Amino acid sequence: MIDEFFEPLGARASAHLRDLGDGRGLGVREHEPVILVSVVKLFIAWEFRRQVEEGLVDPAALVRVTAADRLGGTGTAGFRHDSHISVWDLASLMMEVSDNTAADLVARHIGIGSLRGLAARVGLKGTRLIGSPRAILEEVARDLDVSDLEALAHVLASGSVSTEELRRTSAWDPARTNASTPADLTAFLRHVWNGPAPIAADVRTWMGRQLTGGRLSRLAPSGVAVFGRSGSLPGWRNEIAVWEWPDGRRHAIAVFAQVTRDNTREVELAMSRAALALTDAFGQ
Questions:
Q1: Total domains in the fold of the chain
Q2: What are the residue boundaries of the Beta-lactamase class A catalytic domain, all occurrences included (predicted)?
């Protein structure tokens, strides 16, 4: 159903679509393990918002972001100076600009143990949550026999580690990193969307404001509201989304693509074609 979009590009994809109403689904290799990369931020966001709702976390609590926290990248991850930011605003930055440092700090605030136990609590049998971005990078540093994350940054910037060497590290291996399956991810989106209204509304808002990604929305029909969370590493392009149709239908879609060439733009367009093909096939 979707291989025709990816095979000419030297890519391979797994995907799943689920109706958020009745739970019916349709997929291709939907039970194969995939790496989450920044898609893990959806799990962190949902657990944070749940704890806020239950009075376990004060959303206005100020968190100090220091040089020791910064990983580089967007949002607080690339700040030059120390700052104090509410944990709520960190969650927003984590979801809207894919801020890795914000993800670390929010995960620390809710408790890594709580995050790791989330999949089992909501019945996701194919999902394993190890930790936030820093935990994953620390594993990569160990795999490459690098002393710490600062040294890892220098190694990566220098180009002394090849892409193939990186792809042999734990971050690229579903058996050793944050991982799930397309079917689990659409099930989790259904859990989020059909959960307590205040939690669902805030997660929906954060996903609707995502400034990076948009891989599944490029060919979405006019009038369809799209809410997404993307993730990527060299060799992987991932995105999960909810499409809300004008007629009231709501579909959760997950597409994960493994890339072998320097053609990520074409692969991302193929991901949107795959999402559209799944919705067309589901409606037949």
A1: 1
A2: 15-256
Whether the per-residue pLDDT at 152 is higher than 90: the answer is no
Q: Can you tell me the distance from the alpha carbon of 224 to that of 29, in angstroms, rounded to the nearest whole number?
A: 26
Residue 76: predicted pLDDT: 94
200: three-class secondary structure by DSSP: helix
Which residue carries 């004060």 as its tokens? 58
Domain that holds residue 15: 3-283
Q: Which residue has the higher pLDDT, 148 or 31?
A: 31
Q: Determine the 3-state secondary structure of 201 from DSSP.
A: helix
Closest CA to 204 of 241, 162, 167: 241
Residue type at 33 in one-letter notation? P
- pLDDT given at position 160: 81
- Cα separation, 29 vs 32, in Å, equals 6
Q: Please report where in the chains the tokens 């959960």 appear, as a residue.
A: 195
Handedness of CA 103, 254, 187, 117 (dihedral sign): negative
CA 72 to CA 51: how far, in whole Å?
Answer: 28
Instruction: Report which residue type is found at 188.
Output: F
Beta bridge partners of 128: 179
Expressed in percent and rounded to 5, the helix, strand and coil fractions of the chain are 45, 20, 35
Residue 284, pLDDT > 60, answer no
Q: What is the DSSP string of 73-97?
A: SSGGGG-SS-EEEEHHHHHHHHHHS
From the list 238, 216, 253, 166, the residue with the least C-alpha distance to 11 is 238
222, 72 Cβ separation under 8 angstroms = no
Q: CATH number of the domain that 201 lies in?
A: 3.40.710.10
For residue 230, the surrounding DSSP H or E stretch is: strand 225-233
Contacts of 110 (CB under 8 A, 6+ apart): 44, 47, 48, 51, 57
